[in-house]
Design the sequence.
């Protein structure tokens, strides 16, 4: 007689688990307190941006040259979203930590893991609930964009969506760090310390070693703040998007590994090592993704269209040797106006910095820039693309490209009434948030049903 086969436990539906996580995130005070704190923070930044933009617009209305330099992306959106970035860095982790630490401290997490849900599935539901909390927290900054449009301000969809996508990926990364910290610690306080150590430590990297070449430059790229700079410049990098998503998924997977109550420490360490090695290998592959698109309306990150079409056809290796210290203002201009654009335009480009610190003024080679294309070379001291690009074309033996007709960026000066922003962020929006909080905490209503005799309730 054959022995009966063991009964298989079917996977539980995902929707009830997600609904439960959403109720817990929305029911916590941390989310609503964060919303109230974001209102004055974003409101003050938006108010200052409107004031400075209006002052610049007064002079720009009388000069077309000054009007070209007025971009709502730089003048309004980036400063306003910058305040939201500070709130996400300092306040959002407490909302994400509560989604896991509260269950660990109360013991309900052990019961949840025993249900037919995998730990990774539980972490996925918590991550989705945390991102829903991020969407709710972004309402103040979204309302600032709406107010700007109501005041008559200009919005370019492509660069605006790029900025929003960057901040969404940053929020996902911070939320994943917070969930991972909550998974490896025993209390919410310890998880908050670990999370803030990682996020605020990124600021320390930016202040100390950012901009230095060599190993310091590679370490500075680990900073969370560095991930937002490309989006704030209006650049969409496929490799960066893939890398940020990969790191967030890896942190959630590690959190799922450490949530397993029955596994030994050695087993968790081995699985974490395998996950980390896989993530590093995938990040190395992501570094090979070079697709980058300039999404700005004024194309500030690109050369003129004619040069953008000719430079990719120069397939021979180009080596640029810069005899400037990284902290030299001339190197900063060269990097922003020429080198960064060449890296995105030319297929084979090598940039090497020949000096680590500024030497004496008598050094003859300091300040020079060498260009080597194939067997030819040339030297210049200019940092302007108008002089550097003809040098590169001369080394490659090609003629200067004919200009391609394009629409000039007009600039968008605007002097707006800023009283509406103050009334909204300091009065109306906080009252709406408090009202939504009280409505959510209202006691449930009970429906009384008359049960007839002989019927089952």
Sequence:
């Amino acid at each position: 007689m054959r022995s009966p086969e063991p009964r298989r436990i079917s996977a539980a539906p995902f929707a009830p688990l997600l609904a439960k996580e959403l109720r817990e995130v929305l029911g916590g005070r941390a989310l609503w307190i964060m919303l109230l704190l974001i209102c004055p923070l974003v409101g003050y930044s938006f108010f200052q941006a409107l004031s400075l933009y209006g002052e610049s617009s007064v002079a720009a209305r009388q000069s077309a040259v000054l009007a070209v330099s007025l971009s709502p992306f730089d003048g309004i959106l980036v400063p306003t979203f910058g305040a939201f970035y500070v709130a996400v860095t300092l306040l959002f982790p407490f909302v994400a930590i509560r989604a896991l630490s509260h269950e660990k401290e109360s013991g309900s997490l052990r019961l949840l893991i025993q249900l037919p849900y995998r730990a990774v599935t539980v972490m996925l539901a918590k991550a989705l609930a945390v991102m829903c909390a991020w969407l709710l927290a972004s309402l103040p900054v979204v309302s600032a964009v709406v107010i700007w449009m109501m005041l008559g301000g200009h919005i370019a969809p492509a660069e605006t969506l790029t900025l929003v996508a960057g901040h969404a990926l940053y929020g996902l990364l911070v939320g994943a760090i917070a969930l991972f910290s909550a998974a490896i610690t025993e209390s919410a306080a310890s998880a908050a310390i670990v999370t803030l150590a990682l996020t605020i430590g990124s600021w320390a990297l930016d202040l100390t070693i950012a901009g230095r070449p060599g190993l310091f430059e590679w370490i500075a790229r680990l900073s969370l703040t560095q991930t937002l700079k490309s989006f704030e410049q209006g650049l969409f990098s496929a490799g960066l998007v893939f890398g940020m998503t990969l790191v967030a998924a890896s942190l959630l997977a590690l959190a799922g590994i450490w949530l397993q109550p029955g596994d030994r420490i050695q087993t968790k360490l081995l699985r974490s090592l395998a996950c980390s090695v896989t993530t590093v290998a995938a990040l190395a592959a992501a570094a090979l993704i070079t697709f980058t698109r300039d999404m700005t309306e004024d194309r500030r990150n690109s050369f003129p269209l004619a040069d953008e079409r000719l430079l990719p056809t120069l397939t021979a290796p180009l080596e640029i040797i810069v005899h400037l210290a990284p902290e030299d203002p001339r190197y900063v201009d060269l990097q922003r106006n020429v080198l960064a654009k060449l890296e995105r335009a030319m297929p084979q480009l090598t940039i090497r910095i020949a000096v680590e610190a500024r030497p004496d003024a008598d050094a003859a080679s300091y300040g020079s820039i060498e260009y080597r294309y194939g067997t030819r070379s040339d030297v210049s001291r200019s940092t302007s693309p108008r002089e550097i690009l003809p040098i590169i074309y001369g080394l490659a033996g090609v003629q200067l490209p004919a200009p391609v007709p394009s629409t000039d960026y007009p600039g968008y000066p605007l002097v707006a009434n800023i009283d509406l922003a103050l009334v909204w962020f300091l009065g109306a929006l906080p009252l709406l948030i408090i009202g939504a909080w009280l409505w959510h905490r209202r006691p449930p209503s009970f429906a009384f049903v008359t049960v007839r005799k002989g019927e089952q309730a």
About this structure: Confidence is low (pLDDT under 50) at residues 1-10, 446-457. The chain has two domains: 14-294, 305-396. The chain has 18 helices and six strands. The two ends are 45 Å apart (CA to CA).
